[in-house]
Amino acid sequence: MEWLYILMPIAGVKIFWPGLIILGVGVGIIGGFFGMGGAWMVTPGLNILGFPMAFAIGTDIAHMAGKSLISTMRHGKFGNVDYKLGMIMLVGTVVGFEVGAQMVMWLERIGNVEKVVRWIYIALLAAIAWMVFHDVAKRREKERQAAAKGEKLEAGATGVEWHKTLHKIKIPPMVHLKEAGVYCSAWLPIFVSFATGWLAGILGIGGGLIRMPALIYLIGCPTHVAVGTDLFEVMISGLYGAATYTYKGRTELVAAMIMLVGASVGAQVGAVATKYIKGYGIRIAFGLAVVGCALSILMKLVQPWLPQLKDVLDTGATVLVLGLVSCMSLYIFIRMIQGVKMELSMKKSA
């Protein structure tokens, strides 16, 4: 079975190449659907396949940039990308990311970086999960109230409406974001992107896990537009990150290209799936992904207190992440097929 393994010339390790394609397909579907770069899923996956951690991170970022480019192009065709919003947010993202990175350097100097970053990660994921499921619960409550009155809730109605309060802040210049359907102060997306960029810089992730819910709940983007616009941001930050890691000699471009073969297919599926799984279907699935991510990080975090369970917790965290990739991508694929079948049957009956 030697032909199933390929030598990575820069990292100097032999890797099971079908595993790279499977990982690329799965994360391509999830990334194209949720608008997340998928660093929290791909990096441990590459590490399991045999990459040293530094090469896993660099290769993941290179793969992420290419995958996000493919997904952004597909979402752009559906009108899911607000390029104006993306360019405005880029200013805050870059500045915030640099501030966060400098804070990490400071934490490293005082010897607290790993503990602080992991606890921030857990707190952030818990807050995002609460926000998503609180929003879903609030909307269902509104649906029940509307049904009791014999009415039907508007399709665009949301549960949490924090963005409406933020839109009342009229600090010039004001901007109209056509695709997002938002009219607000330009300082709102700049401030939100600075905050999300700062967190991304501290946590060392592309930022999609933070920015996507921020676009929905703080700026007021429809879910499918938030996904497409976030991918546009991930694409730009990913290209920058890929260049940086390649310059440092920590990117295995052969592996990144193999993964992109799978990701180019998966990203198309994920992007098309947003056409058939709208609004709260995406939000619930995203919430479950966040909970799974938080649990896998927690398994790593508690290891110093449970050294006798280190191997079990390591394996559990790995299985959870890879299982999450497989289950989520399969769910999205099945829902897309169901949507396509329904659309075709409606066209035939018409």
Characterize the structure shown:
The protein is mainly alpha-helical and 350 residues long. It has one domain (2-349). The protein has twelve helices and four strands. The protein has a two-stranded antiparallel ribbon with strand order 1-2. Strands 3-4 form a two-stranded antiparallel ribbon. A hairpin with a 4-residue loop joins β1 (5-8) and β2. α1 (17-34) runs antiparallel to α2 (39-49), α1 (17-34) packs parallel to α10 and α3 (53-77) packs antiparallel against α9 (223-247). The model has no long low-confidence stretch (mean pLDDT 79).
- Main β sheet profile: 2 strands, antiparallel
Approximately what portion of the residues adopt beta-strand conformation? under 5%
Order of helices and strands: EEHHHHHHEEHHHHHH
The helix-and-strand class reads: mainly alpha
Which range best describes the helical content: under 10%, 10-25%, 25-40%, 40-55%, 55-70% or over 70%? over 70%
Task: Supply Rg.
Answer: 20 Å
Distance between the termini: 53 Å
Number of helices: 12
| DSSP strand count | 4
Form type: globular
Our count of domains comes out at: 1
Notable characteristics:
single chain, 350 residues, mainly alpha, two-stranded antiparallel ribbon, 4 strands, 75% helix, globular
SSE topology sketch:
Elements (H helix, E strand, L loop, with lengths): L4 E4 L4 E4 H18 L4 H11 L3 H25 L5 H27 L3 H36 L13 H5 L7 E4 L4 E4 L1 H17 L4 H12 L3 H25 L5 H24 L3 H22 L8 H40 L1
Antiparallel strand pairs: 1-2, 3-4
Helix pairs in contact: 1-2, 1-3, 1-10, 1-12, 2-3, 2-12, 3-9, 3-10, 4-5, 4-7, 4-9, 5-11, 7-8, 8-9, 10-12, 11-12
